[in-house]
Amino acid sequence: MAEHKILIEKIKKLKKQKNAVILAHNYQRPEIYDVADFIGDSLKLCLEARETDADIILFCGVSFMAETACILNPDKKVIVPFIDAGCAMADMLSIEALRKMKKAHPGVPVVTYVNSSAEVKAESDYCCTSANAVEVVRRIEGDKVLFVPDRNLAGYVGRQVPEKKVIAFDGYCPVHDMINAEYLDDAIKTYPSAKLIAHPECRQEVLERADAVRSTSGMIKAVQEMDAEEFFVLTECGMIERLKREVPGKKFYGLCNMCFDMKKNNLESVFRCLEDEGPKVKVDKNVASKALLSLENMFDIMEDHG
User: Fold this and answer.
1) How does DSSP classify residue 171?
2) How far apart are CA 112 and CA 105, in angstroms?
3) How many CB atoms lie within 10 A of CB 276?
4) Contact 19, 56 (CB under 8 A)
């Protein structure tokens, strides 16, 4: 604990010297929260960084998040503790597979979940988040959309927007897709008073039984507002610590479903990254400009929605 405190102070001092900000995704280790300037979901973090005058962005998350930070903050240096911290779901969809899907459905707009590579975003018409996916799809013209890469989020969107045909790529998040009805039965039996709150990356059989379906940031707001004292949280296990920190008066339970790429980062690797100012994340300029358009199309929809 004493070593952690010393390291935290070193990171804070170095951060100030280098005019850097540290962004930490909700699923990060709790020790990372202690040095982070912003904690939240990936897109919120990138937008927060946009508003700072920092020269360096140190992103504690996975690769697609850091790429999005580059796209939205082209004049800032984006670094990560581990350049190989990937996302299994994002890796399921190649640019070739998306182009094949588009060829099979000519003229149908592509809505891409932000949990995707920069190249895939560049080949898309719109991006979306788990929080705004329903609204983005609802407000796009036409009666069909291609939705990539998450089949579970696509299914959730399709049920919320039945007037459109949502054609999904067969990708998924292994951490969320592992949760099934059997897990729910055990959770309810063990914690009968707990409300179930699930991420929309979960299977339909899980979402249909949840008391609330929310993005990671939405979960915090939901548990603050819901009239309950106990919650069983159906998402990556790191969210439990985040909720305990934000809503200390309530109890949270969850599964041991860890994203190992998210958990690669620790204080030592953050300090080394900041000290070395690397590894640096790079996105091809042509790819970044096209990917930015899909993100801006999403922002335009949400701005019009108010």
Assistant:
1) B
2) 15
3) 11
4) yes
Cα gap 249→247, rounded to integer Å: 6
Task: Using DSSP, state whether 275 is helix, strand or coil.
Answer: helix
Q: Which tens digits make up the pLDDT trace of 239-294?
A: 999 999 999 999 999 987 889 999 999 999 999 999 999 999 999 999 999 999 99
Residues 2-25, mean pLDDT to the nearest whole number: 92
Ranges of H-type helices in 192-284:
204-207, 216-225, 238-246, 267-276
Token reading at 260: 């190992």
**Which domains, and CATH codes, for the chain?**
2-87+262-282 (3.40.50.10800), 89-172+286-305 (3.40.50.10800), 179-254 (3.40.50.10800)
Cα angle at 7 between 40 and 77, to 5 degrees? 55
Cα–Cα distance, 93 to 158 (Å, whole number): 20
How many whole angstroms separate alpha carbon 261 and alpha carbon 21?
A: 21
pTM over 0.85: yes
What totals of helices (H) and strands (E) does the chain contain, helices first?
16, 12
14 burial level (CB within 10 Å; 0-12, 13-18, 19+): middle
Helix, strand or coil for residue 194? coil
